[in-house]
Amino acid sequence: MNTKNDKNSRVWHGGVDEVHDVVVVGAGAAGLNAALLLGRARRKVVVIDAGEPRNAPAAHMHGFLSRDGLPPAALLDLGRAEIARYGIPVLRGRVEQIDHGYYVRMAGGVVLKARRVLIATGLRDELPDIPGVRERWGRDLLHCPYCHAYEVRDQPLAVLGTHPGAVHQALLLRQWSDDVVFLPHTLDLTAQDREQLEARGLHLIEGEIKHLVVDDDRLRGIELADGRVVPRTAAFLFPRFVPHDELLTRLGCDKDDVGWVVTDRTGRTSVTGVWAAGNVIDPRAQVVAAAGMGSTAAFAINTDLLDEDVDRAVEQHRHATVAVR
């Protein structure tokens, strides 16, 4: 891409005419932690964020040492404040395309030039079309037992059979409550599924789910198509994970057999100079794990940049040595 000939684009340099060492796309835990380490390594970094965090519906996050119970938005505020101390800006906007050569195009025409790119754009939870599901999501309709089951421990719980992963979810939830029912809904359970659920003490209630019963802004139960209502105070649902990997896909990053972008242990993709971290490549990564993935990627990116810097310095040194002879 030649930005000089593109009348609809303008290159953003943060006030100086320079190439950024790293452009980080996504300001969740992975992106911010990567930016923090890179900033401390005195790299020129810019973070771009669309402002649509996956865990926005949740009141609190858990399982993060020293941050257990903190609202997700508060963690992001703290992270942005920390990287600001190292002079790293966060641009609000959406990246539409990344061209080979690491020109990062934002909606509205802004273009940034980078030496390396880290994609930490996360994923979205695709929810079943059941009335009440979207409204209660992240409140008393939950997904991750490790994240939220402790807060509803010993309560009457339900697991909605809208995804094959719901069976494992239900088996796991018995660690937090003795009163867990499994509603297969339209899920076709195997004989082994039924045996395992029954062996774990879960009560199976057949019938298609009609909607969630809510009263006074609280979940009260699950109504089935035949009119029966199963009283519950909280429910769990296994969503379909859809990664925000369009930028990686357009760059031609390799994917595995189920369609997820593959990386090495540092987050390096198959495309030179492009890394990925967090839920965009691993749907199981909790906030603390995503932050760690961002840290690991930052170390690797800085090392990659260092190798390039050293090669360039050696080449310049050789030319200078020849010139004085």
Automatic annotation (TrEMBL):
Gene3D superfamilies hit by this protein: FAD/NAD(P)-binding domain (3.50.50.60)
Transmembrane annotation, as ranges: none
One Pfam family this sequence matches: Pyr_redox_2
Keywords carried by this UniProt record: Flavoprotein, Oxidoreductase
Catalytic activity of the protein: [thioredoxin]-dithiol + NADP(+) = [thioredoxin]-disulfide + NADPH + H(+)
Domain FAD/NAD(P)-binding: 20-292
Domain of life: Bacteria
Protein name: NAD(P)/FAD-dependent oxidoreductase
Source species of the chain: Streptomyces sanglieri
